[in-house]
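Lab notebook, bench 4. We co-purified these components, and the gel suggests they stay together. Before we commit to crystallization screens, I want a quick structural picture of the whole thing.
Request: model the full complex, all chains together.
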Amino acid sequence: MSAPSDCCPPETPQAVDLAADAVDGEAADQELAAFAKAIGHPVRVRILRMLARKEAKMCSHIVDELPLAQSTVSEHLRILRSVGLVQANESGPRVSYCIVPFKLKRLKALLEAM
Amino acid sequence: MSAPSDCCPPETPQAVDLAADAVDGEAADQELAAFAKAIGHPVRVRILRMLARKEAKMCSHIVDELPLAQSTVSEHLRILRSVGLVQANESGPRVSYCIVPFKLKRLKALLEAM
DNA sequence: ATGTGTTATCGTCAATCGACGATTAACGAT
DNA sequence: ATCGTTAATCGTCGATTGACGATAACACAT
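Here is the predicted assembly.
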């Protein structure tokens, strides 16, 4: 039986770098800026929230809940994926999206260090 | 004698709204997105950090530490001010900038709720 | 009153963003 | 093999961003 989150594989190995990576310095500046830029749009915040609540959603589900074209939603998802905050699980033509928890934690850690 | 932070007035009255305002919903989405957009640039993250460490800085100090024109830095500061994360204290032609702590807390709270 | 140091604003330019429709690709079912 | 369904990609358009130099505004000294 699939648990609430049948999207994200149990836990990615990179989850280790959470506490390891520096939280300031030039690299951290760019990392935080990239995260922030990705969520710097109301639609993407909303999508993130949708994914955070219901554990996995198909792109079409998201399109249904937003007054935007499918291509636009797909682009927003691409941006969220590009910084690793969101992950896609493809099974057939269907693609389930879900949040990548440790990336979100990393973002929170970066911001918390400010 | 001026304490480390002689910029920000003791505490703004709006500090109350920290716990009061909703942390999700459409308004919160837009609020978080606006914050994120503002810090969605490496230079602005760096400026924020400079202001977070040394409590108050003049614009010219920031210009000195960055490879950017004065007008460019001024624009970045304007963006940070526009979302309330940074505050300006004018005394003569000199303008001291500093972080607005409760705004930063609000941002962290919005993100933490994700 | 003039000058000096400081910051904001204006105008410009190339680059990026956000949205859309149209098309393509990928897979399952018939 | 063809058809539906789903999602990604492409091309386009107007709007916004990021950077700069030049200029204006401001307050303090002289």
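Residues 41, 43, 68-69, 71-72, 75-76, 90-94 of chain B lie near DNA strand D (CB under 10 Å from a C1'). Worth comparing against the SEC data before the next meeting. The first helix of chain B runs from residue 17 to 20.
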